[in-house]
Amino acid sequence: LTQTQHEDAICAAVDTLSSFLTYIPNAVLLNENLISILSQLTEKRKYRNEILMLFTEWIGMSHEDNERTFQVFVSVLNIIAPQIDALMRTAFVSLPDRDQKLVLGFISFISLYFQHHIHSILSSFPNSTPVHTIFKSAHMIILRASQWAHRFDDQIPRILLAYFKTILTLDAPTNNAFRSFIEEEFAEDCRNLLLKITPLHPSYGVKFDTETNQLQKSFSSKQEFDSYSHIILLLCHLNPNAMTTFLLKSIQATAQKLRIQPSVEYLNYLQAICNVIGSCPPLILEQIIQCFALVKDLFNHHATSNDLKMWYGACYLHLTRQKYVWQHFPSSIFVESVGLCHHILHNKADSLLHTMCCDSLLLIFENAPSKERLDQQCIQCVQSILQDSESTLTCLSMVATFEYFKCLGQALQLLPSQIQQHSLSVIMNGPHQMLRAVLSQVSQNVAKIIEPEKIRSLEYTLKAFSKTSSTCGAAVWAHEYEAIHQNLEALYNVTQSWIESMWTQHGEQVVKIATLRQALRIKVLIIQILEHAVESAQFSTIVALLDRVTGDFLNSPAPLKPYRLLNLLSVVMRRSNFLDQFAQILRAALPITARIVSQNDGEFNNLNMSVLTLLGSLVERRDILSLIAFQRDDNSFHHMISISLDSMDKQSSKIYVRAHKITLQLLAFVETASDFYTAFYEHYYNRILSDVARLINDGDHKEAFEEEVELLFRLLCTATRMNHTTEAGAILIKEFREWNDSLTNEIVQETIKRGVQSVNLLRDELKTILLLGAHWDSTDFER
């Protein structure tokens, strides 16, 4: 991209970058040089379509650095928008194919950015007028371009639907003026645009009533309905009352035809309507219940074959995705829906329908009221599902089975407390027996553990435990875990023994053996089960496995990925007891976490965030920090301060802001630990002050400016007390000379917010530093 002018070579480079986009770390893609090079190439007609496609795909991926992503969006917007303006002086149909694709690509680019990032950017900058202005400009561009080009490309209305749905459901915190703009002007834009895009199929004779926001049309086929599904969904956002009536009438008319003569065409049409209702925003409850009743009537009384029954069942399942129904929770619909799902699961339907059925059950159970508010009819319905679970499981595919275990765990939370434990034991009886059977066979010969049959049995058993434990609640699962913890420990030890034996035989080549991944997968599933048990189980039942897991991360020849341990320790941190044991485990884990942060340069943001989550949980536990300080555990504190300071220097705002706050919490603790205070600052004062003074001036960490000033304030106010006046003066001389007047004034204003007493304290400290410091010149004094 930088060392050739050859057009084919540049195109090949862009194609290569696009092909490997999902593999490249964000820190590399966000490199200023790369963004600048690509932006410059976008100005040339030869490359702009390909590079715009690349940016569009990248925008559609998930990103943590919202500020940097926003800068890229603005950069592309500023380059392409003038080119689109120039093209709009010509009739769209007269443009070359390449220019038409540029228009469509640009609309897609803006729409995708809004869909994926507008909530996060408005949350980060809720009152930023420049940000709001840019969003308004982008909205006007997409609106004008769509009105100009929509007649010649039927993709545009579908792109706009996703865009407008994002805007109209915006709930991110923002200022009143911008919210008013969205609620009033954007909605009006939607209505006006609909007037232009509805005549896409003039042969259908569609008319749009601007007073009621309704389509004056009754559809006769799925194809016809699908042609307008994007408009119908959008209208449901604009006028849910009128559109609920329209959809109800559509179901009534279709159901009547199906009663007379079932046909694939009308079945497809009914399913399309039910799918739209399930995807809509909240609609009128009474009319949606009528839709349930119509489809249930078809299921019960007009299905002349099992296939037809399953088809009606699928339509009903689409309706259950309308969450608004479950928020109001009519118990009759609950019992009816759960019963229908139960019937489908016992039927020899395809795997997709079974999985869809499990998703509906989980949604229904999750949105049900608390067990104290459930009536007896609903409780009996749930109990019947749980009692019949063993026979239901025999009808399901492997994928649907694991989703069904999640449903069962969620259903347990709806039962009275006195019967929850017994019901869980009944559900888990099958997996228990399978685990014991496998262990009895592999305990004498660890090599058997990777036999295909054993692997399948273990994966089934452990996933059943993991899925159920993830939804049944910590207190309920704790009792169950205590019944199986010895078997899990034995399985973990057998698996680790096999890994170590394979390492002995093959050395580092063991990582190429496919069965190693299966063995590691078993360990991962055991750790997930342990995580769900940690919060409520007796410590005696988890400590042995917890010690073994931590030890393996330090010593195993083929350890699991570090974030597994980090997540586990973060969960353990929530426990209020077993301080001594946890401090011991923490000592083993902290060196790993410190190494993770110091060795990666930003591309492992998720891993970095896991480290900070653990450290954040730790600094909130004053009891553990006090124990570490009391035991004079200098290594642990060294790793903690190294992690927080290294993370303060990362590029992701989410990470460095969190790290600044953790450092402040650590210093706040140190100031209360009188026995530890002096030793801590003797070791770390200069490093912390140097890092903070440098970061406050580098311009790359603006989101943490308030925390940086607070840290600077605390450190300067500590200087004379700790006899660090000379060192502080030397550091400040070096950094002050880099500060400009604007930055100095910002620091002053941020300090003044702390009140008169704090300002006076800081002034007295600075006087002492100035008087005792060496090598000050007039500019330093002025600063």
The parts where pLDDT drops under 50 for at least 5 residues are 199-206
Mean pLDDT: 78
Strand content: under 5%
Q: Termini, distance in Å?
A: 45 Å
Helix content: over 70%
Shape: globular
Largest beta-sheet details: 2 strands, antiparallel
Main sheet strand line-up: 1-2
Helices, by number, come to: 38
Radius of gyration: 32 Å
Got a strand count?
2
Structural class: mainly alpha
Describe the 3D structure:
The protein is mainly alpha-helical. Helix content is 77%, strand content 1%. The protein has helices at 7-19, 26-29, 32-42, 45-59, 66-87, 97-124, 129-149, 155-168, 176-197, 222-227, 229-238, 240-260, 264-279, 285-301, 306-319, 323-328, 331-346, 351-367, 376-387, 389-393, 398-412, 417-442, 452-471, 474-506, 514-534, 539-555, 562-572, 579-599, 605-619, 622-630, 634-648, 653-672, 674-698, 705-719, 725-736, 741-752, 756-772, 778-782; strands at 207-209, 214-216. It has a two-stranded antiparallel ribbon with strand order 1-2. Strand 1 (207-209) and strand 2 (214-216) form a beta hairpin. Helix 1 (7-19) packs parallel to helix 4 (45-59). Mean pLDDT is 78; it is low at 199-206.
